[in-house]
Design a protein that fits this description.
225 residues, mainly alpha, three-stranded antiparallel β-sheet, 9 helices, coiled coil, Tscrpt_reg_PadR_N, PadR family transcriptional regulator
Length: 225
């Protein structure tokens, strides 16, 4: 399984842990609530759901009165996906993982989206690991810029500076989060600070880049899910 598929499966399990949903609701939540998935191809969602059902982590249900009416009218009923006990246990195992993969750009953004369901000690390890990863990246960027500065034109140089500033901004953001975690403070305590931080990071955790494929035009029929 590719890293990207693993991230999507993790997010689907996390969303369904909150409540059962049909495919359209899942697509909407992935798109609007978890910004990191805005560029994921929706065509990858349905194979992901089938895989999770085959693994026994989800079950498909089609039992509501509205769905029965749709069936009588000749329309296919929407399938509602519900997390099983095995799926919940698997998701909790994924939440507890703090290895190097949790610090990567794509994985960290998805992990952060479910920090509300993650224990504080795990959150701390992931945040500190992410900060260390970015500090290493920043050191390499500075060394590279020092070596090549004289050979770069003004625009390329400005682009590299912009990249460094983005990483520096996320490191500062991580420092704030780590300090809050250590102090046991609620992150919702300062709405103005949160708004300011989102304004400077385009609404994504730490200014992380959006990842994945662009949505394709061949989106599957919603009524089947």
């Amino acid at each position: 399984m590719s890293r990207r598929s693993g991230i999507l499966e993790f997010a689907v399990l996390g969303l369904l842990r909150e409540s059962p949903m049909h495919g359209y609701e899942l697509r909407k939540r992935l798109n609007t609530s978890l910004g990191v998935f805005r560029a994921f191809s929706y065509g990858t969602l349905y194979p992901c759901l089938k895989t999770l059902v085959a693994n026994g982590w989800l079950i498909e249900e089609t039992g509501s009165a509205a769905e029965a009416t749709a069936a009588l009218a000749g329309r296919r009923a929407k399938i509602v996906y519900r997390l099983t006990a095995e799926g919940k246990e698997h998701f909790e195992q994924l939440l507890s993982q703090t290895g190097p993969d949790a610090y990567e750009d794509e994985t960290f953004a998805a992990r952060f989206a479910f920090f509300g369901q993650t224990s504080r000690d795990v959150r701390m390890r992931v945040l500190e690991g992410r900060r260390s990863r970015l500090e290493e990246r920043l050191e390499k960027m500075r060394a590279s810029l020092a070596r090549t500065r004289e050979r770069l034109d003004d625009y390329t140089l400005e682009l590299q500076r912009h990249g460094m500033e983005s990483v520096e901004r996320e490191v500062r953001w991580l420092n704030e989060l780590i300090e809050s975690e250590r102090a046991g403070r609620d992150l919702r305590g300062s709405d103005s600070e949160r708004s300011a931080r989102q304004d400077t990071t385009h609404g994504t955790p730490g200014g992380l880049p959006r990842t994945g494929d662009r949505p394709g035009p061949d989106t599957p029929d919603d009524t089947a899910t």
